Amino acid sequence: MADSTIASSSSSSPAAAAATVEDLPADVLRLVLRRLDGASLAALGAASSAFRGLADDPDTWRALCLGAWPSVRGLPSTLFSGAGGRAYWRTLYADAFPFPSSTSGAALPGPATCTRRRLPARLVSAVDLCHGGVQVMSRVVDTDATCPWFLGSPFRVDALLQEGFTILTPSSSPAPAAFSFAPEELTLSWILIDPATGRALNASSRRPVRVDRPPRWLGNGDAVARFCVVIAGAGEEAVAMEAAVTCDGGGRGHVREVSLTCASMAEEGGGGGVSGEDALAAVAAALAGRRRCGRRGEEDEEARRRSYEEFGRRKRERKERKKRREGAIDLCCSGVVGAAALVAFLVLLVFR
């Protein structure tokens, strides 16, 4: 009996060997493909013509985008209108999932040269904040980038319009006294979108690159978790987007501010920030620039932290060089004034 079973199975093995994954029903394949990440899905679409159509399924890419950034559900409907609107989900994922390449150019164009490219008239921010893997905030912020106040002031986009909020426990009840809140466990996604072109940009690291806490002698002040990504430029021309989440340092889980600012290596005034017009020029260059290859994992997050530390180190060195140069100029000026005073005093003595 066993021999006959083996014989029958061996006789049917050529037909079984001829079966491939492509022989599965399309509905089953779509369910399987929706369990893949974006990079794997794009690679599968390049494997064969049969898989290309399945990998281009707009609903699959929409599910991937909503899984990564729930806030994009509230994006303006104009992004999905017209021809190719449903296919925009794949474009959005390809733009926003990888980090921008900070080596795409040695220098950034200023506003004067960027007028030929067109500065964004509006910026749409899709912001998702999580703590310990639990989503605590999901919001879309539409910013008018044409008003003179925005262009002349330091670049800043606020994601909170009310007086903050308190992080809740998974049971949707207020956090008990024993609830341990750690800013290091926060994760943030801040996607910038130009609705006129549809291009998107990942403007923050996923994990904090630094957490600033107040000195102990100040008590339980506010802690600031900083999520930074260098969007373009190199050396003295580097420009970084920095998202900051300000929360109660007492461990009660109250988030006061969620904001996005822009910093450059050459900014003056000790923290005044980059103006809205200059920041828009940097964002426009990054939107049109390249993205980093590879997947966004722990290694890439570590690279974001290292680039932020390198950015801060170069900025401090530049500030110290400027201070030494100004000190040398002040010393020379003091020496010249002192020498002139001495000469004037000697002349006065001679002609008395």
Automatic annotation (TrEMBL):
Transmembrane segments annotated in the record for this chain: 328-351
Pfam families recorded: F-box-like
Keywords: Membrane, Transmembrane, Transmembrane helix
Transmembrane helix as UniProt keyword: yes
Keyword presence, Transmembrane: yes
Record SUPFAM superfamilies: F-box domain (SSF81383)
Domain of life: Eukaryota
Protein name (record): F-box domain-containing protein
Family annotation (InterPro entries): AT3G44326-like, F-box-like_dom_sf, F-box_dom
Residues of the F-box domain: 18-64
